[in-house]
Amino acid sequence: MADKWWYNSRTGEVELGPQSNSIDRVGPFDTREEAAHAPEKLRQNAEKWAADDAAENR
Asked: Which of 3, 27, 47, 54 is the most buried (most CB within 10 A)?
């Protein structure tokens, strides 16, 4: 399997292959660009999940 890209949430760096501790890594991603945008994607997912939860609890 080819190496995948990871986002290191502690350092803010993008890594090729798992280089840092798993607790600090987000991924894997197919491209460097996807990994670089990981914080935005995580924020979008969290907002969607919060909205879904709020809708379920009405």
From this structure: 27
Is 26 exposed, middle or buried, given 0-12, 13-18 or 19+ CB atoms closer than 10 A?
Answer: middle
Calpha distance 18→36 (Å, rounded): 15
| 0.85 exceeded by pTM | no
Tell me how far apart the alpha carbons of residues 1 and 48 are, in angstroms, rounded to a whole number. Answer: 32
- Residue 1 pLDDT more than 70? no
Distance from C-alpha of 37 to C-alpha of 25, rounded to nearest angstrom? 13
Half-sphere exposure of 41 (CA within 13 A, CB side): 12
Cα-to-chain-centroid distance, residue 39: 6
Return the structure tokens found at 15. 């890594």
Could you tell me the two tokens for 25? 């890594």
If you ran DSSP here, which 8-state letter would residue 20 be given?
A: S
